[in-house]
Input
Amino acid sequence: MPSSSSASSTFQIEYHTCNCGKPSPMRKLKTKENPGRRFLGCGNYEKGKKNCEYFYWIDPDPKLKQIEDKFEALESEKHALHLKCQERENVVQELLKENKKLKKKLTAVQGVVVVYKWKCLFLLCLCIIVVNKED
Output
């Protein structure tokens, strides 16, 4: 972890030292894996001297940020799908209630149809009797 010190009570200067006690300069990587990513390293590293291998990232890992962004997007999508499922479940429940009401109405209508069939049969028989009496 970098160390820090304040130069005065009104203006703070932050500096870092490595485990050798040398100032730890900020450097930028030029690798394909971490292009431009900044870090602090041992002050003796580039001088060819024995160094303490002090190392501290300044910039977060861009791959980790991408993974976190993807995770957040998936969480958001999961939440949206959950809401959509809840909405559809509510629609299903409403349709089931409507279906139950319609089944009751259908049963009532079927009962009325049976009554009308018997009335029509009765009237038909009555008509046949009346017509046969006139002959």
In short: Residues 1-59 form one domain. Helices lie at 62-134. The radius of gyration is 43 Å.
